[in-house]
Amino acid sequence: MSRLIVISNRVSTGGGAQGGLAVALSAALREHGGIWFGWSGNETSEFTGQISLERIDGVTTATVDLEEQDIEEYYNGYANRTLWPLFHYRIDLAEYERSFAGGYQRANERFADTVRPLIEPDDLVWVQDYHMFPLGRELRERGIANRIGFFLHIPWPPRRLLATLPEARALVEGLLDYDLIGFHTEEWLQSFCDFARDELGGVVDEENVLSALGRRVRLIACPVGIDATEFAALSQTDKARQTFERVQESAVGRTLIVGVDRLDYSKGLEERFLGYERFLTEHPAERKEVVLLQIAPPSRGTVDSYQRIRSTLEGLAGRINGAHAALDWVPIRYVNQGYPREMLAGVYRASKVGLVTPLRDGMNLVAKEYVAAQDPDDPGVLILSRFAGAAEQMQEAILINPHSAEEISDALRQAISMPREERIERWRKLMNTVVEQDVMWWLKRFTDALEAIPASQSALIDAEGQSGGV
Hints:
By secondary structure, this protein is an alpha/beta fold. It contains 17 helices and 16 strands. The chain has helices at about 20-30, 70-85, 100-115, 135-140, 160, 170-175, 185-200, 230-235, 240-250, 270-280, 305-325, 340-350, 365-370, 405-415, 420-435, 440-450, 455-460; strands at about 5-10, 35-45, 50-55, 60-65, 125-130, 150, 180-185, 205, 210, 215-220, 255-260, 290-295, 330-335, 355, 380-385, 400. Helix 9 (about 240-250) packs across helix 12 and helix 10 (about 270-280) packs parallel to helix 11 (about 305-325). The two termini are about 35 Å apart.
C-alpha cells in the first residue's frame, strides 16, 4: 500500500470540535500512513517555507505559516469571497478582484515549493478542495510525476455560472494535470463535464475519462462518509450521556429539533428559521410542544457576508422568540459556539428531529452523524434538503425544498407525528447506507481508483496543458 500525502488548506490539530472533513482525513491517514500538509492557520511577517512537523493522534502533520497578504488575498479573498459563493450558486455575493486571483496563485505556488521535498516517488498525493485547484499543475511543473488526485468537497456549479469567473478556463485547464478528480455526486461530476466539453473541447468516454488539451483525467463520483461505527459509539460515552440527559431535562418533555451548521449563507439558516416560524403559526396547538436548538458556530468572521448573516439570524431569532415565546417556553435556542463531537453525539441522540436544510451543499456530514447517533429502538427523524449532496444517498429522510417555508413546516409536522414503526424503518435503511458507505469506503474507492492509474500516465505532462494559470 502506497503512503498517502494529503494536502489541504487547513490541517487537523486533533481534539476539540473537529469538522467532518478533518475526522475523515485523519482516519484515511491512519489507515495508509503518510503526511497531512497544509497551512498552519498562523501568520508570519515573511514567508520562509519553514515546515512544522508534529505527530498528533497517530497522524504526522506538516504545516507552514503564510504572510498577511497571502491570507487576505488567497484565503479571505479568492477562496472565500470568490470561489465559495460562486460554487454555491451565489454569484450575487462573489467578488472578482485581480489581486485575489494573484494571491491565490502565489499561495499555491508556495505550497508546491514547500511540500515538494516531502513527497517520495511511490507516494499517492491527494489534494483537497477548492483552495488548491492549481496545486496539481504547480507540482507537475516542479517535476512531481506521482499519481495525484483531487477531491472537491463543495458543489461544482453549472457551466453558465462558472463562466462568470474571469479565470474559469485557466482554473479548469489546471485541473487537467491531476490524474483523478473526485466529486461527491454524479450531478457535480456532470456539471464539470459540461464545462470541459463546451469550453475546452473535451471528450468524456463511457469510463468517465476526460480527454482534453492532450491530457486524460479520470472522473469519479465518490461521496465522503463518516466513521459511522465510531460515531455511534461516541453517543454511548459518559460525556455524550451527560449531554443527552442535560439536553432532555432542559426540553422539559418537549420535542427537541436540532440544527448544527457553520454560520454560513449556504446552510439555509434564515430559511430554516422562517420555515420553523411558519410551523409555529400554522400549528398553534403544538407550538409549545417543540423547541428548536440551532447550534451555529461562527466562521470567516472577517468576511462581510458572514457578518451580515450573523446579524440577520440574531435579529430573526429575536423576532420569532418575541412573537411566540411564553413565560415558560422559548421556541428557538440559538447558540453561536461549537462543541466537541462527544457532546454533539449526545445532542443528536436527544433530538427527535434533525433539521438539515442547506440551500446548496457539497455533501453534509451532519446528516450522517445525526443518523449514526440515534437510539435504534426509538430513533429521531432526519429532515434533509434536496440540495445537499447527501440527499442522493439518503432518500429515506424527509426530503424538502429549503426555499419553501411551507415544505419545512409540513416536514416538521410529519416528523413530529411519525409513528415509531415508520421512524425505525426509515432509520434502519439510512443507517445501513451510512455504515456501508463510510469514510473507509470513501477512502478505498478513491485511492483504489488513483492507484489503478498507470504510472506512466502521471508523468505525461503535455506542453499545451501547462500553459496558463489562475
